[in-house]
Amino acid sequence: MLIDWFTVGAQVVNFLILLVLLKIFLFDRIKQAMDQREKNIKERFDTAEEQEAKAKEARESFEKKTQSLEDEWDARLKQADKDAKERRESLIKQAREEVDGLKNKWQNALEQEKASFFDRFKKQAARLIFDTVEKTLSHLADTRAQDQAVKKFLSRFEELDKEDLPREVKTQPRVSTGFDLSESQQKSIQKAVSQKLPDVENIAFDVRPELVFGIAFAAGGKKMTWHAHDYVSTLEKQINQAIESKDHEPQKQ
Amino acid sequence: MNFMDIKQISPDQVVFFQYHFITLNLTIVFTWAVMVLLVIGSWLVTRRLSTEPKISAWQNILEILVTGIQDQISEISRQKATRYMPFIGTLFVFIAACNLLTVVPGYESPTASLSTTAALAICVFISVPLFGIAQKGLGRYLKQYIQPTVFMLPFNIMGELSRTLALAVRLFGNIMSGSKIVAILLAIIPFVFPVILQLLGLLTGLIQAYIFAVLAMVYIASATQIQEHSDIKTDTKKDDNQ
């Protein structure tokens, strides 16, 4: 018989024993080791993910900081640019003001110099004209320019209306001349004034070189002047125009 | 050294010791040898298991074996493999070891004995209702024998018995015939050809181990799942009547 029932029973028992032993020494241990390794790997993955998350967070923080610094840098750059522009404009404005001030100062100085020059010129020119006229008149007409000037003054004084004359004379009238008046000339003037202003008894005479060729009368707040400055002023204007036109012409080399 | 001659079909026939019905034959001796080999081998490998990603070659082999069996069980049963792993795993490892050791001169595979294959088939035959009852309960397990009608009860019982018989005879026939053919060929053509057949026998032995384990799992799975299908059908009928 091919089958032995005792052997069958023994093999069943053997199989059950083997089942228990392999369960203890093989399957359970292998399973535990695999589970433990899987757990370890999972823990490592979790740790790695945690570290990755931390790294990501740190990266984002760093990027935010970098962005913040860049923004700050841009803002400071813009502010610096704005400040520089303002400073530049301020300096340019200041420089312009300084230039304008210097220009004005220079122009004022020039004008003053010019005025001074023309003042001196007028005086010298008047004096020169007066001398020339004096010489010419003495040589040709056998008369003095001073006399003609006094004569002209007296004729104009006589032509004055009542409105041009002072109503009352409280202070002493004064006659100023650019040259010395002779005694006869003073008397002539005294006489002419007395005729127009009967209240006036005495007149003060003085010499003012700046009048050069002129005679000025001042009494009771009224003033009447005759002098050669009008002629000299015309000459001054012409010379001035000539100088200004010369200044505006382009310089030729 | 050969314990068997060509006339002896089963290693049961080689008896070392006998006292009344107690017999110590070649089948039991080699079964113990295989058991010792497997247990000691398992103990040696698993005494220092690494839980780090880097593992030894032996541990790797065992893990591949265990994982492979686990996957097969999961695929067949569609359930967690943990409960069936020791039983199915032991079946496969034991049969495979018995069959692969035929390369050792003088060794006679215990699976070439009908007593061994019958014992394994009986284990499967007993385990199927045990797993089924543990899973679904006694009443619901027994109910499947009268599905779809009560007249199917004898046929279902016959089916259970016949598949157990088939399990035993299939394994016994394949292994015994393989060893006998090699023995006969050794007598006729002693060179090269027996070696090829021996290698083929190793492959056959592995396939038989796989078939035995898979069929056992299929039977267990059918015991734990057929009931579910019948329950679903019953529930569906109740719904239709309502």
Question: How would you sum up this structure, described in words?
Answer:
- The complex is a heterodimer of chains A (253) and B (242).
- Chain A is an alpha+beta fold.
- Chain A has a domain at 143-246.
- Chain A has 4 helices and 4 strands, in the order H-H-E-H-E-E-E-H.
- Chain A has helices spanning 5-141, 145-158, 183-196, 229-248; strands at 174-177, 204-207, 215-219, 222-226.
- In chain A, strand 3 (215-219) and strand 4 form a beta hairpin.
- In chain A, helix 1 runs antiparallel to helix 4 and helix 2 runs parallel beside helix 3 (183-196).
- Chain A is rod-shaped and about 195 Å long.
- Chain B is mainly alpha-helical and 242 residues long.
- Chain B has one domain (11-101, 114-236).
- Chain B has helices at residues 26-46, 57-77, 85-100, 114-136, 138-143, 153-188, 193-241, and strands at 15-19, 22-25.
- In chain B, strands 1-2 form a two-stranded antiparallel ribbon.
- Chain B is globular and about 55 Å long.
- The N and C termini of chain B lie far apart (74 Å).
- The interface between A and B is large, with 33 and 46 residues.
Name its key features:
heterodimer, A: 253 residues, alpha+beta, 4-stranded mixed sheet, 4 helices, B: 242 residues, mainly alpha, two-stranded antiparallel ribbon, 7 helices, 71% helix, 4% strand, globular, disordered C terminus
